Target: MAPEG family protein
Amino acid sequence: MTALWIVLIFAAGCLGGWPITAGILKLAKSRSVRAVDAHEMGAQTSPDAARPDLAALTPTPEACPPPAQEAGVLRGGLLIGMLERAGVVLAILSGQPVAIAYVVAIKGLGRYPELKAAPESSERFIIGTLASMLWAAAVAAVAKVLLL
Model:
């Protein structure tokens, strides 16, 4: 593989993953993907509302807890994501896919204190990590199949 191809693969794997990951995180945050919360369930009328035995089980909006706060953005995510994708691409191109486990472990251990302090960020962390790594793995696997 020539040096130019390697640079292009790394650029596609590292830089191309940023808009993909950002788009998936935006999609995950959208109203169409979020789970229906108790407020929305309580506001809807159900066919069983006429039955007194089931009407008592339907939550009222007043009894519902307030909606969860939005997950915060973890600092350094853009740079960490690029390094993570570079590690995945390097692991696959060098024939050492087990090294991806090291990348996951390092990222998880490095983020653990922040995720423990702000558990609402953990879903965003998982979605971003999976989207980022899947992009990098796909780019590297396709490049390896086509160029080697």
About this structure: Confidence is low (pLDDT under 50) at residues 64-69. The longest helix spans residues 122-147. The radius of gyration is 21 Å. Residues 93 and 145 are 10 Å apart (CA to CA).
